[in-house]
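User: Design a sequence. Structure:
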């Protein structure tokens, strides 16, 4: 829908000047423990605060719809503000949160198809999604699409879809991925690099180490190193086990994980006699800050031996930065665009337990160093909030709409009335 909303193309509109209607199509995996579902829920909250109309679409079941059952998304994801979440009742009956392996190709395609058609009926100014299938269908329906993609180039999306006028671009989390997309044919002005982020309100009120430990019944005098996230090998969990063996006087807390991964971690600890490793398991997002505040050191040991190691943008990184606690992280390419050694963190060699041991002991021996690093990290993370990420994405979107002379749905009829009034005047 093109008209003369923008009289002067040299003038850049701020997104806040335009009342936008956005539908965010998830991959149909909310609510779940999957990290990408947390990212979607947090980004949706940020978008909802910035635009006129917003709706997040995910998968639901008919039984819950008939009973008017509403899952508590706010507590599960630690959301600080409510927004509209629509669960399409495409399943007969299920339980929430979704289990680890509930998704399959048929179910994902089925949801994506109906979600895209649902969006078409709502006539939004934009469909935002991380679902490749939903993006393809929405484009065929003539809807404007902004696609968020965190993986290397795959066959099936390039280059046909990127030539469509209503394909506004891709949002990704690393410059390396952006370069791959451009090499594959995506115009450089249609890619936006934005790291993941954090909701700072989620970490209020601030808790002292002593307060947090008393709440969790943890020892006050024992050095504690905390990891929060999934217990996958490529997240560096084997490195944590080895570091725990090297620093037996420290207590290591592992917070998070799927049920089967938690059980496997407990078996490893029992086998190797790791009495100083405590497997906390999965907890609601609302409880995560207390565990982070209870730490002396936060550890981010992502492995360098994985296909995604160079492009990862871990959610926990930004949560760590928000807690005023020192961080020891793997010196991986995309992580080092946020963390700088001895400036806002200590960086260790990936998959090298001795390197992590040295960094952790340095922080325990010299807490003043850790305090300075933590305070700088807290200052730096102000840029990486979900709200600021949403603002930058919306500005990118606004510029793309302007280039196409697009009138947002919410402004279109007002524009028509003004035009008619000028002609009759």
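Assistant: Done.
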């Amino acid at each position: 829908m093109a008209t003369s909303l923008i009289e002067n193309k040299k003038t850049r509109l701020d997104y806040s000047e335009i009342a936008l209607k956005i539908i965010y199509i998830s991959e149909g995996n909310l609510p779940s423990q999957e990290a990408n579902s947390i990212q979607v829920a947090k980004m949706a909250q940020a978008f909802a605060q910035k635009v006129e109309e917003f709706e997040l679409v995910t998968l639901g079941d008919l039984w819950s719809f008939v009973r008017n059952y509403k899952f508590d998304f706010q507590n599960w994801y630690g959301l600080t503000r409510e927004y509209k979440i629509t669960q399409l009742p495409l399943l007969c009956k299920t339980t929430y949160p979704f289990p680890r392996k509930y998704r399959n190709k048929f179910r994902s395609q089925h949801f994506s198809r109906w979600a895209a058609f649902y969006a078409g009926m709502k006539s939004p100014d934009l469909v935002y999604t991380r679902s490749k299938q939903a993006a393809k269908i929405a484009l065929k329906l003539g809807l404007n699409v902004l696609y968020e993609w965190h993986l290397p180039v795959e066959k099936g999306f390039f280059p046909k879809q990127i030539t469509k006028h209503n394909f506004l671009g891709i949002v990704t989390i690393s410059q390396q991925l952006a370069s791959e997309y451009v090499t594959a044919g995506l115009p450089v002005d249609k890619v936006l690099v934005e790291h993941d982020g954090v909701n700072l309100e989620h970490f209020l009120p601030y808790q002292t180490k002593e307060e947090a430990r008393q709440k969790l019944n943890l020892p006050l005098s024992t050095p504690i190193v905390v990891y929060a996230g999934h217990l996958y090998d490529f997240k560096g969990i084997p490195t944590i086990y080895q570091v725990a063996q090297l620093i037996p006087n420290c207590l290591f807390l592992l917070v998070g994980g799927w049920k089967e991964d938690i059980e496997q971690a407990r078996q490893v600890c029992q086998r190797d006699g790791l009495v100083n490793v405590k497997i906390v398991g999965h907890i609601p997002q609302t409880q995560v800050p207390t565990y982070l505040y209870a730490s002396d050191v936060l550890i981010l040991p992502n492995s360098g031996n994985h296909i995604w190691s160079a492009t990862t943008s871990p959610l926990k990184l930004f949560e760590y930065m928000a807690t005023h606690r020192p961080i020891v992280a793997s010196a991986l390419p995309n992580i080092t665009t946020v963390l700088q050694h001895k400036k806002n963190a200590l960086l260790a060699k990936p998959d090298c337990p001795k390197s992590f041991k040295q960094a952790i002991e340095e922080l325990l021996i010299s807490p003043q160093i850790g305090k300075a690093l933590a305070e700088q990290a807290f200052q730096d993370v102000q840029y990486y909030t979900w709200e600021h990420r949403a603002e930058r994405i919306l500005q990118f979107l606004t510029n793309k709409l302007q280039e196409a002379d697009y009138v947002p749905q919410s402004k279109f009829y007002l524009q028509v009335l003004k035009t008619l009034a000028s002609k009759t005047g």
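The mean pLDDT is 89. The domain at 15-197+386-424 is CATH 3.40.50.2000 (Rossmann fold).
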